[in-house]
Write a structure and sequence with these properties.
Distance between the termini: 64 Å
Strand content: under 5%
Largest sheet: none
Order of helices and strands: HHHHHHH
Number of helices: 7
Low-confidence stretches: none
Number of strands: 0
Mean pLDDT: 83
Amino acid sequence: MKTFLDFKNELEEADSIQTRMKKRRAMRKNRAKIALARKKARKKKILDPKILMKRARKQARNKIAKRLLKGKNKAELGMGQKRALEKILDKKAKAISKLAKKMLKVVRQKEMSKGKKKPLDKADKKAIPQK
């Protein structure tokens, strides 16, 4: 059985092409379960600082990746290009953590606003028949 540290080290390393293919098959197989879990999780407020920081770090990483890709879509990249992008992002860990600290406030505000009713647009009000 893998220890937590083994699992953690595995996450930090860039995945090989075979591992990516294996993950892709697993995600495709379980996509209905994953979608249901995401829908459930969207409603739940999570205010744990560690989880919020993890989300901020992920958003910061995606933001820097987007900047590096210069308008290209990450989904359209080949496996080798994705792996090269991951290696570049691993080298930019300091910049990512710095940006994540700045984004933490925004992530926390998004989390706090979960579950609150959003005001209806004027177009929506016209669609609802009134008596």
